[in-house]
Amino acid sequence: MGLFDRLLGRKAAETDTAPLWHRVVAIAREPQWYAKGGVADTIPGRFDCISMVLALVLIRMEREAELRPLTGRLTEHFVDDMDGQLRQNGIGDLVVGKHVGKLVSALGGRIDAYRAALADADDAALIEAVSRNITLNEAADSAAIAAEIRVIAGTLDQASAADLLAGHIAR
């Protein structure tokens, strides 16, 4: 159950997005992002990868009426996870909210950037979005990352709503 649900005393919805959140994180942790693509295996690089995969999933969800209401619940998983990570890294109670706000804002910017780049059939916009929004090593291959983003977006488009919510995203 998300932070807002607990604060407002709401019960968990019948449809849980936890399996989808766990799959988002698992995809973002796949080694090809770091070894082949050149995403920096650092805290900022891992955040960038998680927010990239989450952005792709949220873009997919917003296109289907049945899934749109659940985007907030999925985002709550992101907020809860980032809150926990910040606290684990020593960020105190007084400023953790401000840091989480910045991370959510970064996620929103990435959703906009990836949505616009995916709408363009030319990969130049997507490669630019990758270069601008992901912490990369010097030898990074932005084109390889952009190609993998297109693959994931295509896989998400093919997934049914039920499979998506269950975290069944083929890789």
Spell out the blueprint of helices and strands:
Layout: H1 3-8, H2 18-28, H3 31-35, H4 43-62, H5 71-88, H6 93-119, H7 123-133, H8 142-158, H9 161-165
Helix pairs in contact: 2-4, 4-6, 4-8, 5-6, 6-7, 7-8
3D architecture notes:
With 171 residues, this protein is an all-alpha fold. It is 70% helix and 0% strand. It is built from nine helices and no strands. It has helices at 3-8, 18-28, 31-35, 43-62, 71-88, 93-119, 123-133, 142-158, 161-165. The longest helix has 27 residues, at 93-119.
Structural class estimated from helices and strands: mainly alpha
- Give the percentage of residues in beta strands: under 5%
Question: Segments where pLDDT lies below 50 for 5+ residues?
Answer: none
Kindly state the number of beta strands: 0
Number of domains: 1
Helix content: over 70%
Order of helices and strands: HHHHHHHHH
- Note the total helix count: 9
* Biggest beta-sheet profile: none
**What would the principal axes of the Cα set say about the shape?**
globular
Summed over residues and divided by their number, the pLDDT gives a mean of 86
- Rg to the nearest angstrom? 16 Å
